[in-house]
Write a structure and sequence with these properties.
Helix content is 50%, strand content 10%. With 312 residues, it is α+β, with helices and mostly antiparallel strands.
Length: 312
């Protein structure tokens, strides 16, 4: 574009405007289920607007989302979302990816009236949705995630992508997550050089077996929940937590309930050692996400307050 254009006019012709309740990209980005959502800084936002010939629109938070072989910029202000893609791409991919066809307010109604902790968790993180992500990417991502924090997982995923994934934006050097064949082209030594530590051998074997067809993870989508869980546990380096994470985030089995150190702490503190999964049969994984996000974020907030007080 040779001159600036009105944002609303550009959006009307080039983008997709969506209104969605119970949707918050920042909460989803920090929920521990996806690692390729990136919030743009003000400088990056201004650069993007300039590249599109847009007037400034600081009232919205801007994000870059990468999934499969696709990339989209999304900006959000409350319930208002703008996807910088065609209507066809939004309908065929992003709407399903973000699970935007489902009313997540129904989960609030399902919460036990006497469960004050879960009600607080929902109120705090009600913008979280369970994304429909690629099973292959989730398998490798959660194998990598073992004993790593969220920033470290993001870095590892990006390193894998830039090392052997397909470039989907040459100007900005953005890369898709590698396919099984692409990842199988790396040696064990190559993977170890990417700071994967002991996880490198798990990633190497998964890539070799999926690329060769020995593990047909696409067919696993047809399995029942129990059989899917068993199939995932058959993968080298996959234990209970990782299997449940891949089932929940890669196969959208929202009844899966991953237990990590945060959820274990919650269960011991608020549920006498065991969360009542049976009360939320078929969607306990959604509740898990609300609790996981709430516990992590409130703990971080308390730590910040404690540091500020100690500095006074």
């Amino acid at each position: 574009m040779s001159e600036n254009v009105n944002v609303s006019e550009y959006i009307e012709s080039k983008c997709v405007h969506v209104e969605a309740e119970c949707f918050d990209l920042e909460q989803i980005m920090e929920s521990g289920q996806c690692f390729r959502i990136y919030k743009l800084s003000l400088q990056e936002q201004e650069k993007l607007c300039k590249s599109k010939g847009l007037e400034k629109c600081e009232s919205m938070a801007w994000y870059r989302v990468m999934a499969a072989d696709k990339k989209v910029f999304v900006c959000q202000n409350g319930v208002h979302l703008i996807f910088f893609c065609s209507k066809e791409e939004y309908k065929q991919f992003w709407c399903h990816y973000f699970d935007l066809d489902f009313d997540y307010r129904s989960y609030e109604k399902a919460i036990d009236a006497d469960d004050n902790y879960l009600k607080s968790a929902f109120a705090y993180g009600k913008g979280i949705r369970i994304l429909n992500q690629d099973p292959w990417e989730m398998l490798i991502t959660f194998i990598i995630s073992q004993r790593k924090n969220i920033p470290a997982i993001r870095q590892a995923v990006e390193s894998l992508s830039t090392t052997c994934g397909t470039c989907i934006d040459k100007e900005n050097e953005f890369f898709a997550f590698p396919t099984p064949t692409q990842l199988a082209g790396l040696s064990l030594s190559d993977l170890q050089d990417l700071s994967l530590g002991y996880r490198a051998k798990y990633v190497y074997e998964a890539a070799q077996k999926v690329a060769s067809g020995e593990l047909d993870i696409k067919k696993w989508a047809m399995l029942g929940d129990d059989d899917l869980h068993k199939a995932l546990l058959s993968c080298y380096g996959v234990g209970e937590k990782v299997a449940n994470c891949v089932a929940l985030f890669g196969y959208h089995r929202i009844g899966a309930f991953p237990v990590d150190v945060w959820i274990d702490r919650i269960q011991k503190t608020y549920y006498n050692g065991s969360f009542p999964v049976e009360k939320y049969e078929g969607f306990a994984g959604v509740m898990q996400q609300y609790m996981f996000y709430y516990e992590r974020k409130t703990a971080a907030d308390h730590s910040k307050k404690a540091r500020k007080q100690s500095e006074k």
